[in-house]
Amino acid sequence: MWNTINSLKEISSEELDGQHCSLQESVRIKYASNTEFQRIAKKLQLMEDFKANVPRTGYQGVVQAACMEHRIYIYNPSHALISLAFCGCVGLLFLVLGCALPIYNWYPLFVIIFYILVPIPLTVASRVQDRVSAGGAASCQEFALFLTAGIIVSAFSLPIVLARSPAENPVIHWGACGFALAGNITCFFTIAAYFYIHREEDARYGLF
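^ Alpha-1,3-mannosyl-glycoprotein 2-beta-N-acetylglucosaminyltransferase, sequence as received from the core. Prediction below:
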């Protein structure tokens, strides 16, 4: 279901102008507000479907068009951002728990540095690749992915190293290390999901 939706061509509500009930394929239509949502519904003659409370899953809605034999997938990216914000908060909660519990200390917070650094290589590469040749763009992407992988590995390595050294009295406990690793998984998943969702919206973030 989700792979099918994500593989569809994406168009904005403005691109519907002049295409009233003339779309020849299933598409994803992006909208940013309830007003725009209602305008799309009116344009595609879908108001009866909306009044019938057609079920919607997550931020990607599935609506059967009355005037067409195929489906129009309408989604609101702001709903995805809310979900990503929640996931990011959960990741930071894991990290804080690894620091704030009575027997732990605040050294695991150093992994936040890697959270800040990890989007930078891909963001810079996405801005630069439009200004270089095809070969240069590929090299730029590969180097950005290499740096990103190094940052991610470092984020996971730091808590483990702190939990193992020195051997007699480690800097952090293994419990704190576990919380930090759980926070890493959640936060990096959130960052990757953000890049994936917005890969076509701003400077071709589709490096994932």
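Residues 1-5, 20-24, 47-71, 203-208 have pLDDT under 50 and may be disordered.
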